[in-house]
Each structure stands twice: as structure tokens, then as C-alpha cells.
Amino acid sequence: MRKxxxxxxxxxxxxxxxxxxxxxxxxxxxxxKELGKNTLMILCPPFPYxxxxxxxxxxxxxxxxxxxxxxxxxxxxxxxVSAEMLSSMDIEYCIVGHSERRAYYGETDAMIAKKxxxxxxxxxxxxxxxxxxxxxxxxxxxxxxxxxxxxDGLFHLSAEQFKELVIAYEPVWAIGTGKTATPEQAQExxxxxxxxxxxxxxxxxxDEISILYGGSCKPxxxxxxxxxxxxxxxxxxxxxxxxxxxxxxxxxx
Length: 253
Ligand code: PGA
Fold this sequence. Notes:
Elements: E1 4-9, H1 16-32, E2 39-44, H2 50-57, E3 63-66, H3 83-88, E4 93-96, H4 99-104, H5 109-121, E5 125-130, H6 134-138, H7 142-154, H8 159-162, E6 166-169, H9 183-201, H10 203-208, E7 211-214, H11 219-226, E8 233-236, H12 243-250
Parallel strand pairs: 1-2, 1-8, 2-3, 3-4, 4-5, 5-6, 6-7, 7-8
Helix pairs in contact: 1-12, 5-7, 7-9, 11-12
The structure holds 2-phosphoglycolic acid (PGA).
């Protein structure tokens, strides 16, 4: 059975002490209320805090992910972080192709494909983001956009490799805007993504992949979103910066 996953993308937020407080807050809450057996929590702090968060994760409340990785193996890429480095710190997951990276840092599907290759080579599971911008949604192009992102970014993988992925559908118009996709909109496109995967890799592979929703997901709407058969959890931004909100989202399955 595929996992329910709630991943917190902290983006470029919090000082070291604040990040430490957030992890402790999450752990305190999880001591009182246990997550569902099939629920996996992943925390994705900024690079400098990975080790601190990872040390806490030894208590196995959650797993740890990075927010980005370089698409090259190693070398003269000042300021960058490689998959090999993350792997040497036992980081288990990494977000790839977030819309903010596509929009502000020019990430293309081809670069995302190389990043995914690097991560899989070093046994880190990619959380691959896809999703349309507002104009594309208004023009009814969301299906074409998401299909292109998945095809160009991921369909070079073997079925065995593909099974290692987590997909996050994040409509760009819903990220950080307070405007959430309706449960029907989320289910419609998640089912489309699963079918796109099934057409290429078969139903068995498609049924194993967790497809997360991202975009203004919060405790008040998580239950409705996660109740859909093809919505297997969330990639959470703003609400992941608050221990109580984040844990309540993880308890919404
Ligand atoms: P948000 O961000 O929850 O703040 O909308 C989601 C994301 O960007 O992953």
C-alpha cells in the first residue's frame, strides 16, 4: 500500500534556534498523538540545519529531506550542494523542481531530470514537483503542462527507478496565496497524473506512487483534500512553520 506523506518545506525561513524550537515542538506533539501507521512525516529544512534536524530524526518521528540539489556530480560549482553530500549525511529525501526554483532560478525539465538522476544514483528519494501557473489553469492547459513536466523530467527512468519517487502536484496559483485547489480539482489532476504514470509504467507502478498536493494546505482543509483516493498527502509550506498546524495536518488522514 502506498504511503500517506506529509512533507514540510520550510523554504528560506527560521534562524537556527527557531528551527530547533520547531523540531522540538513537533516532537512534543507527536509524543501526545501518534501518527497513523501508514503516515510518513518528512521535514525539509534549509541546508545549514539538515544535520541538526537529522540528529533529532534518530528518534524516528520523521524523515529528513533537502529542498534542492545540484544536477552535477561534484566539482567547481561554488555555493552548490551535491546528492553525494546529502547521501553522506544520510538525508533520505530531496525536493526537486519546486515552482519557485523553476520561476526564480530558471530550472527546466531537463535540469530536473539530471537532478533526479543524481539523487537516485545516491539513493535519495526525489519529491518531484509539478503544477501549472494561473494563466495555464485559466486556459484549461493544466493537464498538458503537468504531463509535459512529468514526461520530460521523469519518463527517462526505468520502472524500478520510478517507484522511488514521490510526486507533488502544486498549482502555482495556490502556493502561498491562501487560495487552495478544491478537493475536486486536486482529485481530478492527481487521477490524471496517476493515469499518465500507468500508461507509461503500468498500473502496479502507478498505484505505488504517493502523489502529494501542495498549495495553501492547512489544518482546516487537509482532511477534505486527503480524503480523495488519489491524494496521498501534502507538501506543506507556510503551515509547516508552525508545529501545531503541521502536526494537525499530519493527523488529518
Ligand atoms: P504553501 O507552500 O503551503 O505555503 O502554499 C507549498 C509549497 O510551496 O510547497
